[in-house]
Amino acid sequence: MLRHAAFCSLQTEAELECIQIEHPKFNAQLCLQGAQLTQFNSHESGPLLWLSPDAKFEKGKSVRGGIPICWPWFGAVEFNPKSVKENIPDSQGAHGFARNMLWQLHYLKESAHEVCIGLKLGHNKQTLEVWPFEFELICHYQLSNNLKVQLECKNLSKKDITLSQALHTYLPTPSIKNTLIQGAHNSQYIDALDGWKQKVQTGSVKISEEVDRIYLGHKNYRVIRDGKNLILNSNSHSSIIWNPWIKKSQWLSHYPDTGFESMLCIESANVLDDYISLAPGQTSQALSLELSAD
Ligand code: TA6
Fold it and tell me: Which of 36, 58, 79, 178 has the smallest number of CB atoms closer than 10 Å to its CB?
């Protein structure tokens, strides 16, 4: 498919194969590992994603930045509802296996207006050892001046499956101190840094310390920052806002000590009571996000 593509080519970045896209409206980098969009630069609005300056492109490890796909569980296994975690060995790390595995190119459609790329991951010996279900996972990217992502799963098993998931989006900001996140006023959230207490958000979210919060209910966010604002719309009924701040920045992998000053994560998710259940043969309503600037 790529051999005859007008805007896309396969490039090797360290240990990983990535699709490099040079389109009249944007350029982007999409790694086959994890189906991870690592870079997206709109010619109209500038970069819409943050990639760590210390990012490493290593086999079997998610790249620090862009949009890691957390699936079929989000966060630490023990963080999940019983029906999700009962199928996962405790030894497993955070955020599932999909972001560390090699996906296949499923389709590619190019036009002067946009590039649509689909990537697919299916069950295999490795996944079945960790998660005893047959599945087909497809991630659809629709890239133009802005970006749309849709993640859908088909249950190929003969039994119900339950899962949690997130599009773990890293967003750039010129200065975290001058950044406000609108869209969660009066919403309940779980504070992962304060004993998982349930709290209520008053006004915009400001980041002046480590923040790791799971917001409950459907949210669309506007990130007010120096320069163009970012708009992140999603169809999920849970979302996470995260910034590691000073202390955690010093031990996070492939992340500079000052990284917290120029990024934040807003993660479109289906977690806690918003987890996904699929009957045999059922396809999930896609977890979708649309990211733009204005
Ligand atoms: O989404 C927030 C979070 O769960 C944080 O607690 C932090 O661990 C972050 O994800 C990054 O996780 P990672 O495994 O990619 O380093």
Answer: 178
The terminus-to-terminus CA distance of the chain in angstroms comes to 34
CA-closest residue to ligand 1 atom 10: 75
CA of 70 to the centre of ligand 1 (A): 10
Concatenating the DSSP letter of every residue in 110-158 gives: E-SS-EEEEEEEE--HHHHHHS---EEEEEEEEESSSEEEEEEEEE-SS
Q: Which domains does the chain have, with CATH numbers?
A: 2-293 (2.70.98.10)
DSSP sequence for 180-217: EEES-TT-EEEETTTTTEEEE--SSEE-SS-EEEEEES
Cα–Cα distance, 17 to 61 (Å, whole number): 13
Quick one: which atom of ligand 1 is closest to the CA of 192? 6
Pocket of ligand 1 (CB under 6 A): 62, 75, 94-95, 168, 212, 240, 242, 252, 265, 267
DSSP-derived secondary structure letter, 65: B
User: Which amino acid residue places its CA nearest to atom 8 of ligand 1?
Assistant: 75
Peptide bond into 72 cis (omega under 30): yes
Q: How far is the centre of ligand 1, averaged over its atoms, from the C-alpha of 44 (Å)?
A: 30
Contact 248, 221 (CB under 8 A): no
Handedness of CA 7, 12, 14, 17 (dihedral sign): positive
Rounded CA gap, 276 and 103, in Å? 22
Nearest to 138 by CA among 156, 125, 157: 156
Summarised one tens digit per residue, pLDDT across range 171-223 is 999 999 999 999 999 999 999 999 999 999 999 999 999 999 999 999 999 99
User: Cα–Cα distances in Å, from 256 out to 155, 162, 223?
Assistant: 39, 36, 22
The two tokens of residue 181 are 């996140």
| Closest CA relative to residue 190, chosen from 217, 226, 225 | 217
